[in-house]
Task: structure prediction
Amino acid sequence: MADKGWRGTASRLARMDRREFLDRAWQELSKRGDNILSRFGFDFASKLVFAAEKQARRFFFASSSIESVLQLLRQRLPQQVEHIVCQADKICRHQFDLLGYENLDYGERINWHLDAVHAKQAPKKPFYKIRYLDFEEVGDCKVTWELNRHQHFVTLAKAYRLTEDRRYAEEIFQQWQRWHSENPYAVGINWASSLEVAFRSISWIWTYHLLEGTHALPPTFREEWLHAQAVNGRHIERYLSTYFSPNTHLLGEAIALVFLGTLCPEIPRAEHWKSLGWQVVMQETHRQVLADGFHFERSTYYHVYAIDFFLHVLLLASLNDFVIPSEYEKTLEKMLDALLLVGRSGAPPHLGDDDGGRVFDPRRNRSEHLFDPLATGAVLFGREDFKAAAGDLREETIWLLGEQGVSEWDRLPTQQPRVASASLPSAGLCLLATQNPSSQLVVTARPQGEGTAHSHADALSVCLNSEGHGLLIDPGTFEYVGPERDLFRGTAMHNTLRVDGASQSETAGLFAWKRLARAQAEQWITGKTFDLFVGSHDGYTRLASPVIHRRWVCSLTCGLFLVRDLAEGQGKHRLDIAWHLGAEMQFHAERSFELKGNSGGLALLVPEKHGWSQEVSKEAWSPVYGKKERINVVTFSTIASLPAEFVTLLLPLGLVSESPGKLTQTSDSSSAVNGYLYSTPEQDCSFVFADKGRRWNHARLASDAEFVCWRKKHEAEVESIIFCGGSYIEIDGKRILSLKRTVSRCEITIREGQKEVHTSDPEAL
Result:
């Protein structure tokens, strides 16, 4: 094991350039130097001279305007005001809601080094010696760190301003004093992550500005507060995650430096921190945001995390006369657009890791809270669709933008986002949308690249929302360092195909992959009446008998989604396809599930006599980090000789009591094509899949297309024909249309003998 460790270290060193090597070496030496100094009681802010303020400092609100903000909260969000006071009362009893855990009792004297969930205390030793990802040593470090972010100080300060009850302010200062006595610099887990120091710094800034100008704030506290912030700023600057975690860690640390540098001008390093932090923020805007506006970690939660950081620092910079490039604002608006896209028919799905933390209010950490930035973005960019998606004004927006922002929110009309299929190609997301009912299916085909630490083994997985409800979901994350880490990020927890019981990707640690499946979107076609996605991944080519998983997803404007899974290879393999139903979904009938307290639901149709086993079971899902519940999971399984395929029709239902129809396979193993018929009393819809460039005949259809969909209504003389990757189509031996050459898309509507044709290549007509 020791030899393996040395080889790993040598390999990492070999991959470093000179700059990275020197930076890491300097940090390691600095850690040891700080440890030695701390043993001798060195004051790490002793050389800092707190001179008079050199310039005006502007926070999101002034002490003179807080009363107007409080009045807005009472008028507009009375339930949130009650929630703040209720939370503050719990905090005074030392009962905390952290991440997804509720009512954690930290006793009469808070142990700031304790993970109260797992009853594990981190050792009090030099911070760089603490193995904070070792569950046996510290438990779940995220639980401990969440408490030590001191965001609950902000809750107590707001409660004090709302009620003028001094208990809340006194609790802040009692905890402040005890925390500092029990967390001397350079000792303990609470100095082990620069991001956590950054969060704590920002919480202290919010707390100070909420209490500024009140009788509760001791007259000498600012100097004490600045002294503590000077230590924080020094630590963040020295131990920036430039190479260690150059993601939201680095971004959060840079933003803390901007806040400290701007709002603590008495500290001599303040101007440098402000400049350095802003430089890193600008740099990370370009590096961490993909061309389509999605965050490079390709996690929904981390995307919102990054938006929160970028949004808060933009507003602070605007108030303090920073030079803000127009490209920065465009990038932020693009990120908000991407968030809007993935959640147009319901809460954004849990793609990738769910961190569980937030920049403003840590309790707003569920899927339905991820639209919070859109409320502020609506005012900032004058976006009516952002306001419609956000729905209601948020507390965060009131604090950030004040009376003027609320007035602008009220003046801004609402306009529902346009529901049309779209893609985020850099993020590897394709979004197939239908309007009757309003539904959206998100399919993942994320390419490899930077930012895979928070990825899951979810290639070609799908999530489905309809009319604001999650019908098919991603089960989330649950934990980072416990025994179920790999379970929740594995393939079995996602709506995709699993081969031989294996995950698509192989892990190499809590945030690393030995081999990550490479996915690609082979075709993405959007038409007037349909959309088609074809993608594949190579995750199972590592097997002794290699397998390629290819998935076709077709949506029709009538509201159905057809999913075709192909396992391509040789030999016999076990195949499992799982469908994780939303938490609101309950069993209704053999082929359908209904929403609790709602007439709608989802029909999940498979071909009659399909030959696969079918099981409905209760499995785990995690609505938020640290919380686990049970949902219904439908799994289809077989052991088959490859190639093999399976088709599932997903049909969101307005009325689950209505018959969803049936799906029949119209081809057999000897056919040159694979055909399926979906039939209801109102219509028949045929689907045919064939090899590229090959002429074929099947039932009443003939073509050279890869994909054909023929939909015919029984009562009306209307039929529609779609074909992709072909040049002609025949029905009952009659040539319906011939093209000069193969086109990627052709749509034909026939009404009373009249044809209307739309094609991707009009010149081929």
Observations:
- The chain has a mean pLDDT of 93.
- The longest helix spans residues 18-39.
